[in-house]
Every structure is written in structure tokens, then in C-alpha cells.
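Lab manual, section 2.4: Encoding a predicted structure.

Procedure: take the sequence of the chain (242 residues), apply the prediction step described in section 2.3, and record the output as C-alpha cells. A sample record is shown.
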Amino acid sequence: MTDQVDLAASAREFKCISCGNKTDQLYRDFNSGIIKIEHCKHCQKVVDKYIESEPVIICLDFLLLKQQAFRHVLYNRKTQGHWKLVAILLLCDAFTKLLLGRPHSTESYLRPDYMIYSALEWGLYINFSLALIELFITILIIIVCIRTISTEKCRPGELMRGVLLSNFGKILVIPAVLWGTNYSLIYVSLSRMFVCAANIQAIRVLSPGCHVSTCIMSVVLGHVVAMLSSIWIQNILSQVPG
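Recorded output:
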């Protein structure tokens, strides 16, 4: 509990995970090893129950797209090293693109060590660049749409962080792609839908005044434009000789 409390205590802005209202602190430390969790002045509930929870519980609730878990992660917990998570997600996306671009008859497709040998392929780094471009376009369009349409102005940095952390669903497609090719495209599509749903939930938490339809439109538009841009770049690269 101590590590989680320290992380929560270093956050700049606290919010009740139940009602979303601002609060001064998450807990009281009586300097004698006793910590008392604060209650919200608006809803009278515990401000943040997750400061006593194990990381596994937080991850499960985050995976279930619960707003309480999103508020805890985005407001009450200082996320350290989230750029490492972004790099892992980009690698997962790049590896997925590389595998789906291979012929189904390739014998090395289902080899357990194929992921290791793929690091030696130039195509992996090209797909990594494409994944980075897609992520940049998605975040840019979402930020522009929310900042333009929504009456509640959320800071661009918060929106970017929320979208980045809510892209964790891209990891889920890797086991499905490695298991076989028959339903890989279906799994990839479901993974993208899950990522879109997580992005929408993150935006709703960061910008409560934004209408749900605006959140959905911004996220879908961002992902569609990013995907079309990636296809356009791939077509250009395929026409380059050599």
C-alpha cells in the first residue's frame, strides 16, 4: 500500500473516482504509520479505493473499461515510464502488421522463435514507423476535434496521455496472431474496436463535459484517417523500386 499511496500523493490533481469532483487529498497521514482514506464531500464515498488495491485489480478494472479505474490512473496516480509502454505498443503493432503481411503458407509464420528473428527484418522497422505515424495522426485528430467541438477545454497533454495509456489493448492481439492465421483479421478488428472503446472512455473521463457522440466521432475519425494514411504510405512504398 505504501508504494501506491506514494504514487497517488505525487499527483498534481486529485479527483473522486466515483463522481469525478475535485478533492484536496486522497488520504491523511498521521505520521504514526496510520493512514486514513478520505471521503468525498460531494458523494460521501471513498475518494479513491484503488490506493489500497493491488496493481492486478487496477489492471483488470482498467481492462473492463471502468470509469473509476480510468480516473485513478489518469488523475490520482502518477504514471512513470509510460513512454516505455508506448514503445512496447508500437512494437506489438509493428509485429502484427509484419505477420499479417506474410503469406499464410510461410513455414516460419508459426515458429515460436519467429518473433526473435523478425527483429532482423527491415520490414519490422518500416511497420514500426507506420505504427508511429498512425498513433501521431490519431492523437492529433482527437485533440483537434475535442478542443474544437467540446465546450470544456481539456489540456492537450492530458488528452495525449489518456489516449496513449488507453491504447494498451493492442497487446491483446499478439497471442491471437501467433496462434494461427484463420481468424487473425477478426482478432485484429476486435482489438481495434476495444482500443477505440478505451480511447472513448479515457476522453469521457478527462473531458466530462464532452458529449458521448463527440467522443465517439473524434476517436473513430482519428483511427480511420490514421489507417487510410498508413495504407496510402504503404502504396507509395510498394511502388519504390528495390
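Check your result against the sample. The radius of gyration is 20 Å.
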